[in-house]
Structures
1.
Amino acid sequence: MFGIGPGELVIIGVLFLVIFGPDKVPQMARDIGKFTNEARRAIEDFREDLTQANDEDEDDQDDDYYNDDEQSKTDHKDEDDEDDAVERDL
């Protein structure tokens, strides 16, 4: 973990105890845990929102593709009808 070994973690823990005292360290650990959980939830919610928005965009693009395809078929049909009308007039 970031190049920190077990011995270094023990030293960091002892420094926390000396600086903040044995009464505040457990409360700090709880606060850090709460913050971490809230941050994870916020990130997960954000990720879900992005995924949902992306899925909606893809659905809209698919709908546009099929609608454009149907419109082009209608356009071609209109052109064929015009060609038939011109041939009948001749």
2.
Amino acid sequence: MNRSHVTSLRLSPDLSPLLALLSLSLSLSLVNACGPVPGDAAAAETESGTETSVSDLRVNRPPAFRDVEESFSSEDDQNRWFDLLQGLRQNFDDICGDTFCEGDFTNLQSMSFRCSVSTRTGELKTCLWLFAGSYETVTASSGNIRPVTKFFSCPIAVTGTPHTLLEALLPTTPTTPPGRGPLWAPLPGSPSSIYDQLGNCL
């Protein structure tokens, strides 16, 4: 090949597009062969999917505790529980005016009595008695009425199972003094009553 032929090949305008196409094709082949580089979008998506799966496992884990009303296996115990709630509410209403309702909140009302139970052992964890009260004041200059409201969350320390709590607090049990209700009955495993514990809250 003579010198003039080499020079004309080097400067040929048809050769540059071909070389560019070959270079691009080679680059794409290398990328596909090596796979995604660390930190790219595909890898991030995979890691995110793993975290989501772990999170889903945590969400689906069985609960450790539940409401006591969900733990009763017999209709009789369920009915006795509702009898207990009604008895506690009635006992509180009977003595409120002479005891806990002598302060600013003279109209305290029982709102809810709840207990939690371990799903593993069936033992009571704790109980909570919620009360609400209010009073109102009249503004002398405007005649507007300003209400003051307050909630009292009273924790009740308990031990044993829901069944032992029912046995101890219902009026028909031998431990309940004659003419008194579950508010004054000794709690399971303790000499104190719910009435005693309310004194530290209300």
